[in-house]
Write a structure and sequence with these properties.
Layout lengths: L5 H14 L3 E3 L23 H4 L9 E9 L16 E10 L4 H13 L11 E5 L4 H11 L6 E3 L4 E2 L4 E12 L23 E14 L5 E14 H8 L12 H10 L9 H22 L8 H19 L11 H8 L5 H4 L1 H35 L4 E2 L1 H11 L3 H10 L3 E2 L1 H18 L21 E2 L6 E10 L4 E2 L7 E6 L1 E2 L13 E4 L5 E10 L5 E7 L8 E6 L1 H25 L5 E6 L4 E6 L6 H16 L4 E7 H6 L13 E7 L3 E4 L14 E10 L2 E8 H21 L8 H34 L4 E3 L2 E7 L5 H14 L4 E8 L2 E8 L1 H5 L4 H8 L6 E4 L3 E6 L5 H15 L1
Parallel strand pairs: 1-2, 4-5, 10-11, 12-16, 29-30
Antiparallel strand pairs: 2-3, 3-9, 4-7, 6-7, 7-8, 8-9, 13-14, 13-15, 13-20, 15-19, 17-18, 17-20, 18-19, 21-22, 22-27, 23-24, 24-25, 26-27, 28-29, 30-31, 31-33, 32-33
Helix pairs in contact: 3-4, 6-7, 7-8, 7-11, 8-11, 11-12, 12-14, 15-16, 19-20
Family: Belongs to the class-II aminoacyl-tRNA synthetase family.
Pfam family, one: tRNA_SAD
GO molecular function: alanine-tRNA ligase activity; aminoacyl-tRNA deacylase activity; ATP binding; catalytic activity, acting on a protein; transferase activity; tRNA binding; zinc ion binding
């Protein structure tokens, strides 16, 4: 057996099968752009499904790859077992209808045992086969030379995930020796293929020879396929004689760096700490690669997975004594480990670090409070002899502090407590019901029918360079049926043999316009334009005069409306490029809406956009407008478009023939919409707003041309009004006048604060004169005359500085509202009395609630009549708790 690095093993595998005539496919993105059935690419074959189902024919039927993959179905096991990972690499060789079992088996054995390759001891290799697959078992005997005691029949050795290709498989196991045996000799799982630590599965050879039909039956595949998968991490652990996958060169450099960041924690000294080291190392690899492939943390889908992995890592970091953002500091280590085959980590290092750091810091803002509450809750439960955290408490941590439920459950498990998960689900459902009842009912946009599904009518769009044409009416449809004629007042849908009307698509709204007869009279209004199921342009028309199928008429697009739309559309292209120039290449379009009166552009970005950045974007877009750049459109192949550097929209599917919009060489995008001929037609571009619409997605709203001019005029009018209010002679003097007024206001506030402080001092002499003593505790309670809660806190500060008593409770009412403040000195807190508990006891008497720290707490209420009772209740509370 050779001593090899992970990079050497990966490259050796690819070289071996390339020598066997396989084409090396690069590792695909973890984000499955063309497969909505998958959240992540989760295996080596996941990106090759189009070949296996026959929808695409590969250039070479022999394929080999090393594919990064993510699986998240059992995140909780990561760190607790030897080989569970979220991100892993699958080495695979594939045959699409060419070689089959014999070659797959012989080559697998050659790669594993040949001195030229891995040189594993053949005596330590065992295989499992499907009992009915006699052919595979015989090949292992005849072509490889395995004896029967190294061939185990297992009923589960049949690869089948439902409808589609399926077949028997043969797994290869490596005997790690008796020292790894974690089971007794008579344990039913103590064999190659059982659930044990001795025999480690390293390679699975799947022989796809059947088609699993929808009726549950199986039929032979026309073309038999080979699909194999070898876990790189597992093979490396054998070659590097590592007890688990984590003690290899794929993980140990990360773990050593985590040790440096921890508070004197070292891998291998504590089982519990080792779990934390492993979790962080594993999750760091997953989030680094996923972010590099375009995924961003969010509250749903794959973004939620990233957020969960990052938050889980932060929590395990805390267990190692790391109380600050640290994950982002480790991205460089991941990049260095993987650079030989995955240079993208180092290429995007700065961006990945920013995303991770931003997410860590956001979580740290809320997690500390949640962790204090959780630890306090666990302590209270243990003191009370309770063994379960209620669903209500889990939900409070989740809802108030953003504390993930799975982390609460994990902490509870570490402390030997169970959780009321069903109770949590009920609380979540109750919240959803409250949210639903608060929303108004929405209406769907429309109802799909089969009305147009069988029509063979063709419709050609000629609206890129024409907005008025003559066309023949081919089809009329009401909501229920196809008709030959319409009458005045009808609202129908029409298809013409050709049209200048642009149908709503790609974020651009539809054209509007008129239908005119041969004499130039208006016979219909086109109020909307959609796409029919077969792709024809479908005109929604309000009929003004009778119209019939076969009639030729003039189709006229509203020129003014079209011009406004095209200006806004081209402006979105300029904005997209400007975003990338200023924020970075990660700022990809995530949606858009191009209307006549404004444009909306959504984009991916991990943090807030500063005003300076917005100003720079706006300046850059306007600069390109005023440079009078020519806008050219080119119809070409998708490959040539990519060679041109054309930007494709995230997740968008394109055919082989595409349309490229080139704005003066500055912005080059794939786009089917309509645009201006020259940027100077846009005139002016103005950003109205920028905001976050979801984690990792932000939105810019903007206007152009006439709308931008009108907006600036309104702003100028407002400035003139403000100038009059602040008594500035000219607009340019407004800023100076406001600064002057702010200084005057600041001086006035100082005088007010000084007077309030004097009043507080005078009142303090009266308030602090009366001190009661209960069970050795000194107490001051008083209803005070103050202007606000801030003045009440000033009194509390004086109480603390002068050490007036052990406990202070103050209250005041104003306009029917009550404010309460409780303070407890540190000596009394150590005795177990908490200001937070005290305020919770008395707040209900004033019809309110509140909370706070053990030494200081506040509450509010609406029952002013209860203030006296609340203050009297303090003595009773102290007697009971001291």
């Amino acid at each position: 057996m050779k001593q090899l690095t992970s990079n050497e093993v990966r490259q050796m595998f690819l070289d071996f099968f390339e020598d066997k005539g396989h084409k090396v496919e690069p590792s695909a993105s973890l984000v499955p752009f063309e497969d909505p059935s998958l959240l992540w690419i989760n295996s080596g074959v996941a990106t090759l499904k189009k070949y296996f189902d026959g929808s695409v024919t590969p250039d070479n039927p022999r394929i080999v790859n090393a594919q990064k993959s993510i699986r998240t179905n059992d995140i909780e096991n990561v760190g607790r077992t030897a080989r569970h990972h979220t991100l892993f690499e699958m080495l695979g060789n594939f045959s699409i209808g060419e070689y089959f079992k014999e070659e797959a088996i012989v080559w697998a054995w050659e790669f594993l045992t040949s001195e030229k390759w891995l040189a594993l001891d053949p005596k330590k290799l065992y295989v499992t086969v499907y009992p009915e697959d006699k052919e595979a078992a015989q090949l292992w005997r005849d072509k490889v030379g395995l004896t029967d005691d190294h061939i185990i029949e297992i009923e589960d050795n049949f690869w089948d995930i439902g409808v589609g290709p399926s077949g028997p498989d043969s797994e290869i196991f490596y005997d790690r020796g008796e020292k790894f045996n974690n089971l007794s000799k008579d344990d039913p799982e103590n064999y190659p293929g059982g659930e044990n630590e001795r025999w480690l599965e390293i390679w699975n050879l799947v022989f796809s020879e059947f088609n699993h039909k929808e009726d549950g039956t199986y039929e032979p595949l026309p073309n038999k396929n080979i699909d194999t998968g070898m876990g790189l991490e597992r093979v490396v652990s054998i070659l590097q004689d590592a007890p688990t996958n984590f003690e290899t060169d794929l993980f140990m450099p990360i773990i050593r760096e985590i040790e440096k960041l921890s508070q004197n924690k070292h891998y291998g000294e504590s089982k519990q700490d080792d779990i934390s080291f492993k979790v962080i190392a594993d999750h760091l690899r997953a989030v680094s690669f996923a972010i590099g492939d375009g995924a961003l943390p969010s509250n749903e889908g794959r973004g939620y997975v990233l957020r969960r992995l990052l938050r889980r890592s932060v929590m395990h970091g805390k267990k190692l004594g790391i109380d600050e953002a640290f994950m982002f500091k480790l991205v460089l280590i991941v990049g260095n480990i993987m650079d030989a085959f995955y240079p993208e980590i180092l290429e995007q290092k700065s961006f990945i670090e920013k995303v991770i750091k931003n997410e860590e810091e956001r979580f740290h803002e809320t997690i500390n409070d949640g962790l204090i509450i959780l630890n306090q809750l666990i302590s209270e439960l243990k003191l009370a002899g309770e063994t379960k955290i209620t669903g209500k408490d889990i939900f409070k941590l989740y809802d108030t502090f953003g504390f993930p439920v799975e982390l609460t459950e994990e902490y509870a498990q570490d402390e030997g407590l169970s959780v009321d998960h069903e109770g949590f689900i009920k609380e979540m459902e109750a919240q959803r019901n409250r949210a639903r009842s608060a929303r108004s009912d929405g209406k769907s946009m429309g109802i799909q029918t089969k009305l147009f599904s069988d029509t063979t009518v063709e419709s050609i769009f000629v609206g890129y360079d024409q907005i008025v044409i003559e066309a023949k009416l081919e089809l009329i449809a009401t909501d229920e049926e196809l008709v030959e004629r319409t009458k005045s007042g009808d609202k129908v849908r029409m298809i013409f043999d050709q049209t200048p009307f642009y149908a709503e698509m790609g974020g651009q709204v539809a054209d509007k316009g008129l239908l005119l007869d041969s004499d130039g009279y208006t016979i219909g209004k086109v109020i909307d334009v959609k796409r029919a199921p077969a792709g024809q342009t479908l005109h929604i028309v309000e009929v003004l005069s009778p119209i019939q199928v076969g009639q030729t008429m003039k189709l006229s697009v509203d020129k003014n409306l079209r011009n406004k739309i095209t200006r806004n559309h081209t402006a979105t292209h300029l904005l997209h490029r400007a975003l990338k120039d200023i924020l970075g290449e990660h700022a990809n379009q995530a949606g858009s809406l191009v209307m006549s009166d404004y444009l909306r552009f959504d984009f991916t970005h991990f943090g807030q956009v500063t005003q300076v950045e917005l100003d720079e974007m706006e300046r850059k877009v306007n600069k390109k407008i005023w440079e009078s750049l020519e806008v050219k459109t080119i119809e070409t192949t998708i490959d040539k478009a990519r060679e041109m550097g054309a930007m494709a929209l995230f997740g968008e599917k394109y055919g082989n023939e595409v349309r490229v919009v080139d704005v003066g060489g500055y912005s080059i995008e794939l786009c089917g919409g309509v645009h201006v001929a020259n940027t100077d037609e846009i005139g002016l571009f103005k950003i109205l707003s920028e905001s976050g619409i979801g984690a990792g997605v932000r939105r810019i709203e903007a206007i152009t041309s006439e709308a931008a001019f009108n907006y600036l005029q309104k702003q100028e009018k407002r400035l003139k009004i403000i100038a009059g209010l602040v008594k500035a002679k000219q607009i340019k003097d407004v800023e100076r006048k406001i600064e002057q007024l702010q200084l005057e206001l600041k001086e006035t506030q100082k005088e007010k604060d000084s007077l309030q402080a004097k009043l507080a001092n005078e009142q303090a002499n009266d308030v602090f004169d009366t001190v009661q003593t209960i069970n050795g505790m000194t107490i001051v309670t008083a209803q005070v005359e103050v202007s606000d809660a801030n003045q009440m806190r000033q009194l509390a500060d004086q109480w603390k500085q002068q050490a007036i008593s052990n406990i202070l409770v103050l209250g005041f009412s104003k306009d029917g509202k009550v404010s309460l403040l409780a303070a407890v000195d540190q000596e009394t807190v150590k005795k177990g009395l908490s200001a937070g508990n005290l305020i919770k006891e008395i707040a209900p008497l004033v019809g309110g609630g509140g909370g706070g720290r053990p030494d200081m707490a506040q509450a509010g209420g609406k029952n002013a009549a209860g203030l006296t009772n609340a203050l009297e209740k303090v003595v009773e509370w102290v007697e009971k708790n001291s």
